[in-house]
Every structure is written in C-alpha cells, then in structure tokens.
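Hello,

Our lab assistant flagged a job as stuck in the queue for most of the afternoon. It eventually completed. Since we weren't sure the result was trustworthy after the delay, we are filing this so someone can double-check. Below is the sequence as submitted and the structure that was eventually returned. Let us know if re-running is recommended.
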Amino acid sequence: MKELLQLKAKEAKRSRWRTGNIIVSYTRVSDPYQFDNTSLETQKKDADKFANQRGLFIKKYFGGIVESAKTDERKEFKKMLEYVKKDQSISAILVYSYERFSRSDQAMQLIVDLARAGVRVLSVLQDVDVTSPTGKLQQQIFMAFGNYDNELRREKSKRGMIENLLNGYWVGVVPFGYTNLRRKEKAKYHEYVINKDGEILKLAFKWKAEGQMNNEEIVAKMQKMGSTIKYKSFVRIISNPFYCGYLVNSLIPGQVIKGKHPALVSEELFLRANQIVTSNPHKGISKKYKNTAVPLKSFLRSEVSGLPFTAYLKKGHYYYKTRGKGDAVNERADVVNELFMQEMAKLKVEDKHRDKIEGRVKELVFAKFENNKAELEAKRRRLGELLKKIESLEERYIEGELDRELYEKYMSKYKSEREEMREEIENANLESSNLEKAIKKGLEILQDPLQLWLSSSYDDKQRLQYLLFPEGLWYNKEKREVRTPRVNSVVFLITGVARVTTENKKGHLTISDLHSHLVVPTRIELVSKV
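-- returned structure --
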C-alpha cells in the first residue's frame, strides 16, 4: 500500500534557469579615451579571472568596442543577445558591472526577458545570486542607480548647452556656409569661419533682397557657381538668424541671443531678404516697375534660354526683354500680352454647364482625396519616426554617446528628410471642406478669367497669373506662341470636365468620357482668393 501511495508523489519542478558552466562575456566603454581601471583590457582580464575562479567557461566574447549603455540599440550588444537566444548551451552573460550592461529605461525588462529564457546576467563587481529574491532586489537596485546616474548626466549636459546658448555659443550642427575649425573642443572654444558655400550664400541674400529672382532661380545660380545647396533647404537656411549673428534654439524658446560667431550678412540685409521669403515668393518687384502695361514681368520666361523677362519703355511702346546673359529676346509687350489673353480666354467655363461640371469635378477630386488618405497616414507615421530619431540623436549627442562629426552627419540627413516629409504632408493634407471651397472658387474665377484679369491691378494680375499657372509662362519668339508648363490642378480638372461636357452633344458625362480625357493630378492645390 505505501509503495502504491509513493507512486503519487510529485516530482520537483524543473529549474527555469539554464544549467551548465558555458557563458559569454560582454565588455564595453562609452569613451574611446577611457584608459582607467574600467578600460576594455581591464574588463576582459577581470572577467577571465572571475570565470576561472567559479569554474565557468567563456565560449565567446562580445563588445570590446565603444558603445553606450544608455540605449539598447548597440550593434555588439544586440548581436550578443541574438547569439544567447539561439545557443541554448549559454547559461549566463558576464559583464564587468551592471551599468556596463545597460543604463536604459528598459534595463530591468531586458533582465526579466533574459530570465524567462533561462539566462542569468552576472557581474564581476556586484557578485550576487540573481536566482534568489534578495539577489534580484540587489540587481534591480544596481540597475536603477545606473539609470538615475544617466538622468543626472543628461540634465547636467542640457543645462550646460542652455548656458552656452545664453552666452552666445552655438551648440548644434554647424550651419550651412560655415566651417568649425575647432569642432572637437567645447562650444566656447569653437571657431567658425565662412567657407565657399557661405560666400555664395552672401550673394543669395543680396539677390533675394533685391527681389529680381525667385527661389528656384537663386538656387540654380548658386549651384552653377559651385554651391552644394539644395533647393528644398533654401528657405530654411536663409531664414536662420545665425547668418546675421544671432542664435535661436528650442532649448531657449522665445529668445534670440547675440552670437559670438561671425555674421554672414548684416541684420538689415537679412531682414530685407526674409521680408520677401515670408510673403509671396513670386513678388519682390519694386513699386516703380508695377505697370499694368507689362504684367508678365518675371512671370514670363524664354522657352529657349529659360531666362525671365523684364520690361522697358522705348519710343512710347513697352517691350519685354530677357534678363541676364545668353541669347537676348526682345518683343513688344502688347504682342505677348495678346497671346496670353488668348490662353486666358480658353479657360472660360460656360455657365449653363456649371452645376454639372461642379458635380463631376467633386467626384473626381474626392475619389483622389480618399485614395490619398492611406498614403498620407504612412507619411505621418514616417514623420513621427523621424522626429523620434532626431530627439534620440540629440540626447545621445548631449550625453556624449556620439561625436560631433557623426551627430552633424545624421542630424543633417534626418532634418532634410523631415522638412521634405512635412512639405509633402502639407501639400496633401487637405480637408474635404477646403477642397469643396476650392472647386467653387475655381468655377467662380473661370466664369470669365480674362475679364477678371483685365479689370485687376498689377498686383492682382500677378496673383491671378501665378494662381492659374504656378510655373509661369514660356514664350517662343520664333513660333510667336506662349505655353503654360502647368495649370493649377483644380483649374485643370474643371476645364477638362468642361471640355468633355461641351464635346458631348447630349451634355451627359460618363465615366468612360472622364477617364479617356482626364488624369487627376497627384497633388490637389487650393484655389485661394484673388
């Protein structure tokens, strides 16, 4: 009977910890110049001694490089974790001290995850039994102190950056057009000099302030002179007060501090250039040249050379003439104006078809609007990821994890992509109510666009021209014709639908009619008030 009852006895639960004496070792330093008693060589030597004394065999060494414990994105660290998860013979990870293992906010969760896999994390300096409740508590305390030390350092570093900014010393990426001759030293010892890009940028400020060229023309001219500037970065660069000797930064919100660096341009020139940047980028023409007889100035370009036209008066007649070098083109203003008016007249929409046209345009635009929602959400997610990367990069730089060269390289890349993504989102982020208003406004303008243009002032003529034809007008003197590279997308749709309606004898539009004549633009622009 006792023997039968003995068979019912429970067996001891198997330990969740991996058994055996095979381990891996991880060593690291956060500073390449760390040659004290926690150097890589010392850590490896002490790890070997610790293993020998306890009969442990180190199967593989990881680390041995400069990696910060403030983030768990370290390459060697991740490589080690993957290795341990795959090799079931590994029973423990040996580190010099727990702060060498991880100082991140997720440190304890990482320890827990490894424990679930049966892997212990041992420390040379803090020799505790991590399988016991007391040992686990001690381990948690060590990890918490490491994280606390991180927070103190981060706060101290942030205060130091703020103090530098308030004293006029720049702490961010070296702005375009400058070279820092002492970039590896503390901010107050940095020495900024204006490089080749900066010298060309000086001219760009002057051109922008004069208002004779738009942004695209300025950037193209800079690039021809050897500048590395990109068009999408131009407005951001030229708007930075750093170039007239001042500092602004999110660490000192609402403040503008006089910097210790050399100014690229005067405050007066900077403000004049930015007065144009912040207003209509197509404007910038001084009042004395605002003559309604020559409304196509700057808006008009030569189809052969690509150069814009200016205007002049000779013997009682106004003429358009191309600016700059190259094959000069002269033409009577009334000749070109007449050709442009013919183009304007083509846009007129018959009022009797207005309701039908409006309904069909709405169908097309809203269908495109719905299709773009998923793409817009993906772009917003990507922007969120970029903002997190920028924030992480700034923190790692503040905390000394990255040197200035790597910080500047990746920060420039992320910020450039961020601005590009923001611009794409802004262009695509339209509310359906705004689209409906744009369509109604477009139809209102297209009732008689030519008459509206003829009755407008010089400034209003320019606004209407750029509204309808965002990329201006091309003129070919040899063929005596004008051409519009691009029509406002809403206007394009309205005129296209109107054409199909007119061609259809019964005045009924079909889906096949629409698809055979029209392609909805990828970007839908709003028609603003003129």
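-- support follow-up --
The delay was a queue issue, not a problem with the job. The result is valid. The mean pLDDT is 77. The radius of gyration is 34 Å.
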